[in-house]
Amino acid sequence: MADSTESESRKLLGRLREALAEDSEGQERLDHITHLIADSMATEVCSIYLFRDDETLELCATEGLKAEAVHQTRMRLGEGLVGRVAKSGSVVNSADAPKERGFRYMPETGEEMYSSFLGVPIQRLGDALGVLVVQSRTAREFSEDEVYALEVVAMVLAEMAELGAFIGEGAALSARHQHPVMIRGGVGQEGTAEGHVFLHEPRVVVTNPIADDPHAERERLHEAVDTLRMSVDEMLAGAMTGDTEQVKVLEAYRMFANSKGWMRRMEEDIARGLSAEAAVEKEQSKARARMSQVPDAYLRERLHDLDDLSNRLLRILTGQGKDTGAEMPSDPVLVARNIGPGELLEYGRSLKGIILEEGSVGSHAAIVARALAIPLVINADRIITEALNGDHVLVDGEQGIVHLRPEDSIKTAFRDKIAMQTTAAEKYSSIRELPAITKDGTEIRLSMNAGLMADLPSLESSGANGVGLFRTELQFLIRNQMPKRGELVALYQRVLAAADGQKVVFRTLDIGSDKVLPYMKPQEEPNPAMGWRAIRLGLDKPGVMRMQLQAFIRACAGRPLSVMFPFVAQFDEYRVARALLEKELENEARLGHILPESVEIGAMLETPSLAYAPTQFFESCDFISIGGNDLKQFFFAADRENERVRKRYDSLNVSFLSFIEQIVERCESTNTPVSFCGEDAGRPLEALCFAAMGLRTLSMRPASIGPIKSMLRSINLAEAKSVIDEARNSGAQSVRPAIEEWLRERVDAD
Ligand code: PEP
Ligand code: MG
Fold first, then answer.
1. pLDDT class for 169, splitting at 50, 70, 90?
2. What is the pLDDT of residue 701?
3. Dmax over Cα atoms in the chain, in whole Å?
4. Mutation choice for ligand 1 from 189, 508, 510, 695, CB with most ligand atoms inside 8 A
């Protein structure tokens, strides 16, 4: 790069910095900036277009076009060359603009037919703010250096906009992060919450994008990168014996940290007048922009790594740690790109809600959020760029919607919704001690699903009848290494003590599929949900399962024990697992441990095959629990993790309901107690239909116990059954419409 160009660029940035330091505000400042860019680049026109909303760009300042057009001329995303720059996020450089695809002549701007056009996006970390344009009469393509200089200026503008440099009287430019924003994501955990944003990793603020001593900046960059390399090496040394996935990520970090290309590009940015921080951020912005465009998942992951690494480097340079001293609001709603289960547990129940930019229904974070009953919205696109610490936010976990900085009307509607839920909650608490008996006298036992110690207090507050499903894998998932037997004994003891004599059904480890232990070698499987998971893994590598069974027995210390095995697909699997437990009981007795007062051993019915197992299987089970989440996905061949197909098949589809009925009948014929513990048990219509199919025990998340009990106490089950039968006989696909209408009529009549 020619030294003269470098100094030209530095000169321009220097003038820009002076302009920004002047005591002017908003519009005046923008006008001044367009003037000095046009002057420095020797072009007739310089214009700044900014987004008014997601789809519309507005001319906000210009040198060379008609002043009256400012704040009047608007264009849609993709419209004209300016719209094209905004939409593609890339540069348009043309010597003959009128000949370009999509060129639009805008007479209201007094625009002559300028031949040359150079437009660059104004963006910050992948967040598009607008477009910066220079135009000139003479037909010429702008040089690489000129393009580069304008990009650097655009970046500084974005940075300054972020800091609110263009807000002010008459500017008609509101600051970023002040508009209300509605983001539609996915449902991670139902529930609603109102609170204030607490960023898990607050963004680094770069207050000095322009620097005039490139040597000093380069030194700072080198020092910071050295520190970064050292910390990556340390992390890598610490991780070498552990999880290979983590090692892979860290190796990618190291590769980037040592990348000459990355360093060279940042040094070039510094030579052009940027500060070290701004140079890092410029590269990070580019990576973010690419991230949203590359279809390849592996490449996207690597760009993510680079993004993380850039954040680390920025924190080293600015001295802004993860803990920025931002005070945790009293009603925190956690906002993060993603979060590990352990970190989430550290925040614990203090959180009102959680919003993740990524995440999935089956992610560990979602599992923990569910266990803690904290409303969670996942896949909330752009939440990281939009949200600031302390922003007012409404989380609608029922719909998967986030309202950031909501308007008053939204707030009111939302609060009404919360108030209704609170009233309902009060009603539920008044029936907490009462049984779930239908009007025609059928009692349904409602127990709760749990997986963490943190769940246990809900046993009391929800009025649940014991724990119908204790998912033991959560304790394994949130640790960095395999728990020891002694730790498990202590944990299960605490669970049983907290249950205070109520029954707890422990399910042995259900890992594999979506639940991959951080410290176990991940298996490359094309279809993990149908792969080597749960009891399959437990029987093939019985070491961990045996340790767990021993821990159950010891933790009981004479109390009754209830254990079930997940994902049994054929009789033999259950037989072998049961024998393993019986053998452990013998061994424990031999070792002098007190045996449980009674032992119940059950199987989870999660694959259709088991419904057709030999009668002897049902006879040999002390109980059966229908794992409806898995059973439904295999019944309909529709992945429970796949948003596209997850909701395609209704749980009240007549085929599925009839299938459940058949399972209940088979269990009845052998007097085997049967329950249902999938998520559907916690939904009122589903619970009602399952009860009508003969199920007498339902296990659900604690928050559902009140609504389900209240509904069951208000209906006549035999009547519901005849409505369902009628719908089934009518050839309907699902009984939902009929049962919904029946319930509605009943509520209207009350
Ligand atoms: C189920 O599959 O319904 C179940 C309860 O198990 P999990 O959701 O943990 O797979
Ligand atoms: Mg399951």
1. very low
2. 87
3. 97
4. 510
